[in-house]
Specification:
619 residues; alpha+beta; 5-stranded mixed sheet; 4-stranded antiparallel sheet; 18 helices; transmembrane; His_kinase_dom; HATPase_C_sf; EC 2.7.13.3; HATPase_dom
């Protein structure tokens, strides 16, 4: 494979991998934003519900207290009421009806508040509009172009904004009277800070007019009775109710609001009830996150807090949500409830763990496949280069004996040379030797091919290692003598009988001795020993040649691999010898180890089990 093709494959796979990582990052980021938004909406709804429950709880407590006070007053005035029993009975009957209607009106108002809270929870931008404004500008489409939305964004910090939307008319037209008393809201839809569309929502009236009419009628009757008992008024409230001609429930509402507003904010707040309801509302919305509470009065003084931190910077880093307390007081809201979530981001990330693990596993699988593919590509490229070198070497090795044979044959065709018997005999010997050399090269290549196809026949007969080694050294003696080499032998192992193939063992020792001669820079100095260790015979072939590096030592048994010799080109071969040696030794249940240092020499140590020894025992 060409370098350009490999580069293109790597580039394409890298782009694909980066694209997958970018898509995963975008998906995780958008999921985190969505879950964070749902979390914010849930907490805001929970705070609004808690604030409403606190206000309701205060009203109910105050009502019970007032009932108790009224009962005590009733007991104190019982004697006087007995003198005017019929008047009091009528008054009490009317008051009971008024109380019943007031409760109904209160329940109706709570129902309206619930619908309004639900609308605000779904559409936070909903704007209340007057019915006359609705009939004039909204219902009549030709005047809708006069509607103007004024949006004020107030930055609260930590990425939060408080949006205030005011609805006005750019042109005044005569107002159309309202056709009913329903409560109406406008819901604008924004895009790029501009109103793209709007929607109307209609709720029930704020006050039940039928109940209000009944209350007015009963209050009128009560006023008539109170006029009769003016002289029996015992409190300033009774006198004001009679002299002012006001409805009693209105004065009671005013009095109740004034009494509640005058109470210290600390006394109005039930911390235990607040924490209990806040936990319940958050759990109802599946929010199980540790949080801290902070309550401030209208002067921004802290009334209660669970956040133990004096550092303003650390508070700003927390997710904060706030809502007003007792917002329906006559004056401004006397309190502010805030909730801080120290671990909001980590909790949201934990909830996303179920999809993070498969994504990470998939990404790791892709990276692993990418790396594995690249390793295979580079390995195949390296094998291809080694095979090319092998073909070049093989061509050169085959070319030399063929050329020699051709020259010798042409010489024999010369009549003058053919007449000289000695020269003919010498040329014939040259042709024979080169044929043997060529045959050995061919046999070596065929043996490697048979090894790869697993059809090389290995005989299992008795072989004396000492004899095989001695025979190989005798055959190599002439080659060693030509290289001016020195051979040291110690073939003295007392036990040398193994089960093996004599031919292939001879080839093994021949290859090792031949390498020792070829890879010696100067005159070769080779040492060959045989000795026993337990149930094994060991053969060591050591030289003082050029040696190997650690990296080269790990590759010498690979096919086609040849140790580079720099500028020296006198080392011939195919890079198949040591691969063949390693495979034959393994097939004969032996082991081969290599010890080598660069420029100091190499030692090959071969281990074979003796005949009758257990194969699972090690040296």
């Amino acid at each position: 494979m060409k370098k350009r093709s490999i580069t293109l494959i790597i580039w394409l796979m890298s782009v694909a991998l980066i694209g997958v990582m970018a898509m995963q990052y975008y998906f995780v980021r958008e999921s985190f934003k969505q879950k964070s938004q749902l979390f914010d909406e849930g907490v805001t709804a929970a705070l609004a519900s808690v604030a409403s429950k606190i206000e309701k709880q205060e009203i109910f407590e105050f009502a019970r207290e007032q009932d108790r006070i009224n009962q005590e007053k009733f007991k104190a005035d019982q004697a006087m009421r007995e003198r005017n029993e019929q008047l009091l009975a009528s008054q009490l009957q009317i008051q009971e009806k008024i109380k019943k209607l007031q409760r109904q009106q209160f329940d109706y108002q709570q129902r309206y508040r619930g619908e309004e809270e639900n609308l605000k929870a779904v559409f936070p931008n909903a704007i209340h509009v007057d019915n006359a404004f609705y009939e004039t500008y909204i219902r009549r489409k030709r005047y809708q172009s006069f509607i103007n939305f004024n949006v004020d964004n107030k930055y609260l910090g930590e990425g939060y904004f408080d949006t205030d939307i005011r609805l006005t008319a750019t042109r005044e037209v005569p107002l159309v009277p309202a056709k009913d008393d329903s409560t109406r809201f406008i819901i604008p839809y924004f895009r790029n800070n501009q109103v793209e569309a709007m929607q109307t929502a209609t709720l029930i009236p704020r006050v039940n007019s039928e109940i209000s009419d009944q209350l007015q009628e009963l209050e009128r009757q009560l006023v008539m009775l109170n006029a009769k008992k003016l002289q029996q008024a015992t409190t300033l409230f009774d006198t004001l109710a009679i002299i002012g001609g006001k409805s009693e429930h209105i004065l009671k509402d005013v009095q109740s609001s004034m009494l509640l507003a005058k109470k210290p904010f600390r006394e109005r707040l039930n911390i235990k009830f607040l924490k209990k309801e806040l936990d319940r509302e958050l759990n109802k919305r599946d929010i199980y996150v540790p949080f801290n509470i902070e309550v401030r009065d209208d002067q921004s003084y802290i009334i209660y807090e669970t956040l133990q931190s004096n550092s303003p910077k650390s508070r700003k880093q927390l997710a904060k949500y706030s809502t007003k307390l007792f917002e329906n007081d006559l004056n401004s809201s006397p309190g502010l409830l805030s909730v801080y979530f120290p671990n909001k981001s980590s909790v949201i990330r934990d909830t996303m763990g179920y999809m993070m693990l498969p994504m990470i596993a998939l990404l790791a699988l892709l990276i692993g496949a990418f790396a594995y593919t690249l390793s295979i590509i580079f390995r195949q490229k390296k094998i291809s280069e080694m095979k090319t070198d092998f073909m070049n070497n093989m061509t050169h090795e085959f070319k030399t004996p063929v050329a020699t044979i051709m020259i010798a044959s042409e010489s024999l065709r010369d009549p003058e040379i053919a007449a000289d018997g000695k020269r003919v005999n010498r040329l014939a010997n040259i042709i024979y030797d080169e044929n043997v050399r060529l045959g050995n090269h061919i046999e070596r290549v065929l043996n490697i091919a048979r090894l790869e196809k697993e059809n090389l026949k290995i005989e299992k007969v008795d072989v004396h290692i000492n004899s095989v080694v001695a025979h190989v050294l005798d055959s190599m003696n002439l080659q060693l003598h030509r290289a001016n080499g020195v051979l040291h032998t110690d073939i003295s192992a007392p036990k040398d009988l193994v089960i093996g193939d004599e031919l292939h063992l001879s080839n093994v020792f021949f290859n090792l001795v031949d390498n020792a001669i070829k890879y010696s820079k100067a005159a070769p100095e080779i040492t060959v020993k045989t000795y026993n260790a337990k149930d094994h015979i060991l053969v060591t072939i050591a030289d003082k040649g050029m040696g190997m590096t650690k990296d080269q030592k790990e590759k010498i048994f690979d096919q086609f691999y040849r140790i580079p010799t720099g500028n020296v080109h006198n080392v011939k071969g195919f890079g198949l010898g040591l691969s063949y040696v390693n495979d034959i030794i393994k097939r004969l249940n032996g082991k081969i180890q290599v010890k080598s240092e660069k420029d100091k020499g190499t030692v090959f140590e071969l281990t074979f089990p003796l005949k009758g020894a257990s194969l699972d025992r090690e040296v």
